[in-house]
Amino acid sequence: MTSRFTGAARYVLDDELAAIVNISMALEMPLLLKGEPGTGKTMLAHAIAESLGMPLIVLNVKSSMKLVEALYQYDTLTRLNDSRFGDSRRDVSNIEDYIRMGKIGQAFTAEVRSVLLIDEIDKADTDFQDDMLDVLDQMEFDIIEIDKTIGARQRPVIVITSNAKKDLSDPFLGRCNFHHIAFPDPEMMRRIVAVHFPEIDAALMDQAVETFYRLRSLEGVEKRPATRELINWIRALQADPDFKPRQLARGEIPFLGVLFKKSGDHHRASQAVSRRKVL
User: Is residue 10, in this structure, part of any structural domain at all?
Assistant: First the structure.
């Protein structure tokens, strides 16, 4: 029986999220996580794998991806080259030698139970989503080239993320447990920062977090800075020998390029800082 997930060294977990992770593992259902970028959806899968000592297999979904690519690939080009040049140890008449498992196939054929992260499922079309969940329900798929059914040796722990850029189908939603990860409030953010910087100066912690949320609240920003930007920004502040936390209180905010990655957002933040609109 799989152990309970209680968090990981660098992942701050609230009780509600811990509960839905553990009930999803107990019911052997996929866990669908929604939330804006930077809320820790992807990192949760890493934390589960770390905490439970499982390998992590990541399927990064692309808009043009076909389900078969996530299951397996038939390497026809290598087989053709082997048949033409005849210098391979493989038997070209044995098609199975040219079958390579995709990420879902790897999770099914792994000798130990793994965590399967299906990242940004909202990029895929509805057919991909629904067909994928059919495979995950049945825990098997067919390789048509060799007329063989691949069944899962171990049922993986399945974490699916969505940035909510488009709606998922009702059948898809009905076959998953769901949790929305809200952006951390300042108190939770302080806990997250403390995990990454156990010896952080209290004044720097307070000023950095307060300034971060003021900058996030600027109007017209297309891509608001997320947790990873805050962590990297604090690293930059600590690396500057001339920086003092009181500068932030005075509205002197360095390294805006660490927080804002789009030209328009950076320009808007720079203007706000110069006009002291984030004090």
Answer: no
